[in-house]
């Protein structure tokens, strides 16, 4: 699945080249190139539906990146100094964002993507702007123990990010992940989640090629994500991709295919 993270890096690299970029990710192109996705061929000519799906997925990645960047900045301003990126992939926030002194950022992922990422970071001579700690752990196993061994302190607030992750996990695994996050979260902790909106698997997964990201999507958001998170002890706000895209001056060219329910992009505070 970490090959998908390289694809996300390619989208972030393309966004970074725009004059009106919503963020700048100077390492994204290096990740994409090392993973064989730079440059990349466009969608086959004449396949307008495939082109539209590709653009929609790319824009959703850009919007969610900006949304979570803003959430992390707000958490930092509020005094949170522990950050945990679950399924970190090719995330370069430790290198591209400004962090207050004393911030510790933990990147949790399996060994293969972390090793690939480390090789690119060495090649680029990248220097983190905070204390960056990598944690090689499978999110289906006892990752909280590995995180604690790496120095995470559950007694003080943490901001958790699960970006582009939950859609790949079955519902029982999503519930377990959230329960484990909640158990490691002091009051005042923050969380940013991206959820697969209702119908996304039907629209994008039906004709997805074997091994593609969409072919591995299995989990959509609950009918009431705010209520779902309240049951785990979190006060949450939910936003649709279309809402956030319009607010960022990057609206989707097509309206939602159906009335959008709350969800998609989630910010939450531990009560």
What does this structure look like?
With 271 residues, the protein is α/β, with parallel strands linked by helices. It has helices spanning 2-16, 28-34, 48-77, 93-96, 111-124, 143-149, 171-183, 200-205, 225-230, 241-247; strands spanning 82-86, 104-109, 131-136, 159-162, 190-194, 234-239, 265-270. The protein has a seven-stranded mixed β-sheet with strand order 3-2-1-4-5-7-6, with helices on both faces. Helix 5 (111-124) links the parallel strand 2 and strand 3 (131-136). Helix 1 crosses helix 2. The protein is globular, with a radius of gyration of 18 Å. The two termini are 33 Å apart. The mean pLDDT is 89.
Alpha carbon gyration radius: 18 Å
Query: What's the total helix number?
Result: 10
DSSP helix fraction: 40-55%
Please summarize the sheet with the most strands.
7 strands, mixed
Alpha-carbon distance between the termini?
33 Å
Q: For the largest sheet, list the strands in their spatial order.
A: 3-2-1-4-5-7-6
Topology pattern, helix = H, strand = E = HHHEHEHEHEHEHHEHE
Percent of residues in beta strands: 5-15%
Mean of all residue-level pLDDT scores: 89
Q: Which structural class fits the helix and strand makeup?
A: alpha/beta
Inertia-based shape: globular
Outline the low-pLDDT stretches: none
Per DSSP E runs of 2 or more residues, the count of β-strands stands at 7
């Amino acid at each position: 699945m970490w090959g998908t993270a390289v694809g996300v890096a390619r989208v972030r690299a393309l966004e970074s080249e725009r004059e009106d970029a919503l963020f700048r990710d100077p390492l994204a192109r290096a990740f994409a190139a090392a993973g064989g996705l730079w440059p990349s061929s466009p969608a086959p000519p004449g396949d307008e539906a495939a082109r539209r799906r590709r653009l929609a997925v790319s824009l959703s990645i850009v919007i969610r990146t900006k949304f979570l960047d803003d959430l992390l900045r707000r958490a930092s301003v509020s005094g949170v100094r522990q950050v945990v990126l679950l399924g970190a992939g090719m995330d370069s926030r430790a290198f591209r964002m400004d962090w207050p002194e004393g911030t510790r950022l933990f990147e949790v992922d399996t060994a293969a993507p972390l090793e690939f990422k480390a090789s690119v970071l060495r090649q680029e001579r990248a220097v983190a702007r905070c204390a960056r700690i990598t944690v090689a752990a499978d999110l289906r196993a006892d990752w909280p123990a590995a995180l604690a061994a790496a120095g995470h302190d559950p007694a003080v607030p943490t901001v958790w990010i699960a970006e582009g992750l939950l859609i790949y996990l079955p519902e029982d695994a999503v519930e377990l992940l959230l329960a484990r996050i909640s158990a490691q979260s002091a009051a005042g902790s923050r969380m940013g989640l991206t959820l697969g909106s209702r119908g996304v698997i039907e629209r994008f997964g039906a004709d997805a090629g074997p091994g593609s990201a969409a072919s591995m999507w299995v989990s959509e958001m609950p009918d009431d994500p705010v209520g779902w998170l309240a049951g785990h002890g979190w006060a949450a706000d939910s936003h649709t991709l279309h809402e956030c895209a319009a607010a960022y001056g990057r609206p989707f060219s097509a309206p939602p295919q159906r009335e959008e329910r709350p969800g998609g992009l989630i910010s939450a505070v531990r009560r």
